[in-house]
Structure formats: C-alpha cells, structure tokens
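Deliverable D4.2, example record:
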Amino acid sequence: MKFKSLFLILLLTAPLAVTAQEVALQLYSLRNEMKVDPVKYHKAISDWGISALEGGGGYGMSDAEYTKLLKENKLKIVGVGADYNKLKSDPAGIIADAKKYGAKYATCYWIPHTEGPISMEDMKAATELFNTTGAMLAKEGITLTYHPHGYEFANSGSGTPMDYMLENAKNFQFNMDVFWVQMGGGDPLAIMKAHPGKFPQLHLKDRKKGTPGSADGHGDVETNVVLGTGDIDIAGLIQEAKKQGTKYLVIEDESSRSVEQIPQSVAFIKSELKK
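Output generated by the structure prediction step:
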C-alpha cells in the first residue's frame, strides 16, 4: 500500500508533458478559393486533417452562419490578425475580434515603414507598441505575436532590427514565418534556438531551391513549395518546435498550387512529428 501511495504521489506531482504540436492553416492560403465557395473549402480543410485556423472574417456570412460552418467541419479559429494601425488606435477591437472566435493569439503581420528594409527607429517604435498593447491583450487571455516579414534583417553594425525586437520583447511573442525570415537573410532555426520559448506559432512555408533573397518583404509567391522539398530546414524547425513546445505549426502556402500542395505539407509535418 505504501508503494502504491508513493507511486500515486509521484504521478500527480510529475511535470506535465509538453503540449503536443497542432497543425494549423493560415486561411490566406485559400484566399482565392474562399471567394468562390467558402463552404466547399472549409470542408476540404477538415478533410485534410486540419482543425486549427488562423484568419477568420466570415466570408460574407453572419457571425452565426460562420460559427455554424466552423462547427460543422470541426474547425476552430486559434489566431486573428492584429493590424498595426489598429493596435495603435483600437486595441479593444482586436481583443473583441479574438474573443468572438475564442482565439488565444493575435498576430501583427506587417509594420508600416518606408519601402525597403525597416529602420532601427521604426523597429524600436514597433517594439514599444507591441509591449504596451501586448500587456493589454494578455490581461484578456490573448497573446500578441509578431510575424517577421524579411525586412528586419539589415545589419546596422550593432545588430539587426530583428535582433533588437527579439531582445526587447517583454509582453509579446513571435509567429515566425520561416520563409520570409530566410528571404531576408535570417536563419530561422538558429533564431529559434537562440530565443527558446518565444515562438508559440510558426508559419511553415518552404522555398523553391535557388530562389534569391529579398530585403523588402516582397517576393514571388509561386516559389512556395510543398514542405520538405525546398531549401528551408523545415524538418529541423519541426523538431525544435517539439523541444520548445511550440503550440501551432501553421501552414501558409501563398502559391496558386495551394489546394494541391497543402495536403502534402500536412503529411510531411505529421510524419516529422512522429519522429
């Protein structure tokens, strides 16, 4: 009996296992298809074995109709957008949007700046804004994340704007788009390893081999290829995500082949998660 009691105590007090990774989809991947038939493509997402979504917006449906569509397909919105200017003027609106879907993440995808690489001054201002509004969102149970877009990696002699933001992020985290980080000259896996615990979401997007980089956050979306077939170490990133407890592995495929490529990318992620 003493042995059984001791075993039960150890079982109850043992550290909880790291939360398993969940495959998600950024709905921008199907932006063209959703204009034609959102009912058909929400069902397709479910058929591909995905249940978590970033995006939302309703596609012309009422909130009740869209909620019904999600429920019918066993889908949930886990992340919404957090427009930079709206963070400045109406953070309460972003909180309301997230709560409408029950989303726990709100992501800023772009910092307005002069065309080209972002300046350190603009990055410092953005970091301050994210820290301020991130604290507001956190009080409501929502994590603010920033999605690097490749214009953050110009070296100023004392590091890059991205280095500054990573070091000074106090009340927000990151939804790293590994494609755009690599496009801008960053190393997504090295960044992730250097800043463990700051990446609850990853945008997994592979890049066609031989694609030239870009320092302005723009590039050819047709260079998005099936995960595991390009020049980004997606497998290494998935394994690091497992170590760090990254919650959502978000597929974003901006190419015209997304409907064909997404199921293959899902299969690749799931095979890597089993290793």
